[in-house]
Amino acid sequence: MSAAPWWRDAVVYQVYVRSFADGDGDGIGDLAGITSRLDHLEALGVDAIWLTPCYPSPQLDHGYDVADYFGIDPAYGDLAAFDRLVAEARRRSIRVLMDVVPNHCSSEHPWFRAALASPPGSPERARFFFRDGRGSDGELPPNNWRSVFGGSTWTRVTEADGSPGQWYLHTFSPWQPDLDWSCPDVVAMFRSMLTFWFDRGVDGFRVDAVAVVGKAAELPDAPPVPEGTAENDVWAHNPYTVFWPTAHDHWRDWRRLIDEYEAAHPGRELVTVSEAYTPDRPDLLLQYVGPDQFHQSFCFDLMLAPWRVDTLRVTIEPVAATLTAAGAPLTWTLNNHDTQRGVTRYGRADATEMSSWTKNNLVYTGAPVDLEVGTRRARAAITLAAALPGSLYLFQGEELGLPEVLDLPASARQDPIFFRTEGRETGRDGCRVPLPWSTDAATSFGFSSASVGADAPAAAPWMPQPDDWGAYSVAAQQDDPGSVLSMYRSLLRARRSLLDPDAPLEWPELGAHAGPHPELLVLRRGTVTVVVNVGAVDLAVAEVLPALVGESLLVSSLAGHHDPTVVPADTCCWFGPPR
Ligand code: BGC
Fold first, then answer.
1. Closest CA relative to residue 489, chosen from 46, 37, 44
2. Any idea what the CATH number is for the domain that residue 567 is in?
């Protein structure tokens, strides 16, 4: 029996709390809503859920602006509702991860309010990056850094006496002041936060934006960026914060805390997963994951790869080789709340072009989309990802094949990226539209419970749903063997029953047949051979892979119509060993 921890090959489902299910009819998703829908997650076959931040927050970045790390936002429930969710999830053997945001808090956090009310040089300001401005009157920002969400990374404050004052640093929006991790208060607060939630039964944390937590002490100007760099990508070229090494001391400290917690609480197996985008740099990714830092770190490159054999392979093979050689686990994902949904990404007219490879999930292209093609490819992509060694993180709604909602009116948009770039970047709202559970438009397609709130109808959802949302609903798909939902369910079952978690990832030689078929990606896990046809033409298995494969085990395109001697276009198949 393998002694590996549960998370090594777990399937974790990301719940965007605001959009999953609304238990009290106010149009906003909440913890009671999640609890009421756990059956769906159990039937899907996930091992754990990761909740996006549900702490008290002004919600200016939907919870990634935390005003209190030790509570629950009233819009989402309270600590009792949280405890109920954890207990009900546990009853179904589903573990619960939270989201910790260490780089910044909300400008409504009591610490930041105290900093604003205190003078320059005070201990209250030492928890943040307050600096004097440049220019004769301090009217210019302290350096040239650009924010992830557009604009300068600095905002000037008005001092308590009404005079124009210092500036504070915010890597994201002005409502998210960066915390200075060289301040012991900051270190101590997060240590007690982790323990507080572990004591409530939480099994781990997804750790937000770890790549920008470190900063060069003098905060020097960033060098010029390469010509043509997209506005949303400028920040990523700042060498004085992105991957700045000092943060690793804190991640080591967290790991010690967790190891000690586990030692003191037999039976608890905790996990942290770091969010660090490290395009083409498995060596950098490796710095975050391992026995003395995070347990896992997302391998994001595959998510952003164009639909081509060369880019798929180059976003899997080097990272898998580097991490595996170091004994570090692999953590795959194809979707999250910051990234255009896969169905849309893969359906874009430029989805097979190298030019679409932005390597930055916040930079989208505006190419026209064919959702039928995108859905086929998204089905194939998850069938590929599910076959890789390591864990797999899903984002809510991908199991329904939801597309990105591209035509949200400006008046409905809420993402700070949209506002900070004055609409030049549409932002991430389109992947955060509330989920459809039923075909009943009167309850926002089952998103809002109509029964709670007595006779009053449920409020409109916080973000409008498209008119055709019901066709994607769980109710519409669950009894249809050809639906995306049915495919996800059987894929997760097959992953468990057919794949040996210890089987290494191998790349069999295609020999003479590789030449004429550059649209085939072939890999092997133990006895299972995985074949992806990224081309537009069906290929006869016997012709292209004579000695490689045997019985057809699984196919990502519509079940029921499958000829097992063919790998259809834009499809991923799993095969048994050659007979
Ligand atoms: C989160 C985003 C969030 C940002 C600031 C990210 O990496 O995933 O949703 O806006 O950090 O916290």
1. 44
2. 2.60.40
**Which atom of ligand 1 lies closest to the CA of 171?**
5
By annotation, the residues acting in catalysis are 208, 260
The mean pLDDT of 556-572, rounded to a whole number, is 81
Confidence of residue 319 (pLDDT cuts 50, 70, 90): very high
Question: Residue 554: how many CB atoms within 10 A of its CB?
Answer: 22
Ligand 1 near 203 CB (within 6 A): no
Is residue 325 in some structural domain?
A: no
Is the residue at 544 inside a domain? yes
What is the CA(117)–ligand 1 centre distance, in A? 27
Total domains in the fold of the chain: 1
Taking the CA of residue 337 as reference, the ligand 1 atom at the shortest distance is 9
Q: Which atom of ligand 1 is nearest to 101's Cα?
A: 12
pLDDT at 549: 80
Cβ-based neighbours of 369, under 8 Å, separated by 6 or more: 344, 347, 348, 349, 403, 406
Is 268 within a domain? no
Q: Whose CA is nearest to atom 7 of ligand 1?
A: 209
pLDDT tens figures, 366-396: 899 999 999 999 999 999 999 999 999 999 9
Q: Indicate whether residue 431 lines ligand 1 (CB < 6 A).
A: no
Q: How far, in Å, CA of 141 to CA of 156, rounded?
A: 8
What six digits make up the tokens of 561? Answer: 């119509």
Beta-bridge mates of residue 207: 100, 274
